[in-house]
């Protein structure tokens, strides 16, 4: 159960985000409704999220695999439930979602995907990354993609660490 009430009547700064989500998704997600307690934070965070989702060179499939791993490691069931659908829509295979916990020994993952997941593990668990993993990723990813991957991992770790302690529940199905 959420530890604070959700915002259903947002302040003016948050209203465009609520309207956009209602139009595109038929609902406003619970993290948005909670962040709406701080409209300026929500506005600026949303702008950054749209960049991370829509405007990076990093392969979206690699991003979503990293996010699914973060959500498993941080115990963010809400996040995993929301992103498994996103992941499927961008090409992550169902067996990869099901096997995210044993990616090292699972044939569903390529070597690059395993490197991304090892990198994610290091950042999420220890805020540190083995030099060998970093160097191996540099063979596959440009400097820009590596910066984007690292930022995405840090960003979604922060989101999980907001959602879990705030006790956000899974969203109800699409309205209407």
Question: Can you tag this structure with a few keywords?
Answer:
176 residues; mainly alpha; 2 domains
Helix-strand layout with pairing:
Blueprint: H1 15-25, H2 30-35, H3 39-54, H4 60-74, H5 77-89, H6 94-98, H7 111-126, H8 131-140, H9 143-166
Helix pairs in contact: 4-5, 4-7, 4-9, 7-8, 7-9
Structural commentary:
- Helix 7 (111-126) packs across helix 9 (143-166).
- This protein is an all-alpha fold.
- It has helices at residues 15-25, 30-35, 39-54, 60-74, 77-89, 94-98, 111-126, 131-140, 143-166.
- The chain has two domains: 15-55, no CATH class; 60-165, AhpD-like (Up-down Bundle), CATH 1.20.1290.10.
- It is globular, with a radius of gyration of 17 Å.
- It has nine helices and no strands.
- 66% of the residues lie in helices and 0% in strands.
Strand segment tally: 0
Order of SSEs: HHHHHHHHH
CATH architecture descriptor name of the largest domain: Up-down Bundle
Task: Report the top-level CATH class of the largest domain.
Answer: Mainly Alpha
Discrete helix count: 9
Alpha carbon gap, first and last residue: 24 Å
Task: Determine the fraction of residues in helical runs and give it as a percent range.
Answer: 55-70%
The helix/strand class is: mainly alpha
Largest sheet: none
Shape: globular
Taking all Cα atoms into account, the compactness measure Rg is 17 Å
- By oligomeric state, this entry counts as single chain
Low-confidence stretches: none
- The number of domains: 2
Could you tell me the CATH topology label of the largest domain.
AhpD-like
**CATH homologous superfamily assignment of the largest domain:** AhpD-like
| Strand coverage percent | under 5%
The overall pLDDT, averaged over residues, is 95
């Amino acid at each position: 159960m959420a530890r604070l009430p959700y915002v259903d009547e947002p302040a003016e700064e948050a209203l465009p985000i609520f309207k956009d989500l209602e139009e595109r998704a038929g609902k406003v997600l619970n993290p948005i409704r909670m962040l709406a307690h701080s409209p300026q934070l929500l506005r600026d965070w949303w702008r950054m999220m749209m960049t991370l989702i829509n405007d990076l060179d990093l392969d979206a499939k690699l991003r979503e695999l990293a996010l699914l791993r973060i959500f498993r490691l941080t115990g963010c069931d809400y996040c995993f439930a929301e992103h498994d659908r996103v992941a499927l829509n961008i090409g992550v295979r169902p067996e990869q979602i099901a096997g995210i916990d044993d990616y090292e020994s699972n044939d569903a993952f390529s070597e690059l995907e395993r490197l991304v997941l090892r990198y994610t593990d290091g950042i999420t668990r220890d805020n540190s990354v083995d030099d060998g993993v970093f160097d191996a990723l540099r063979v596959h990813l440009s400097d820009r993609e590596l910066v984007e991957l690292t930022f995405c991992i840090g960003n979604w770790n922060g989101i999980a660490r907001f959602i879990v302690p705030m006790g956000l529940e899974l969203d109800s199905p699409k309205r209407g």
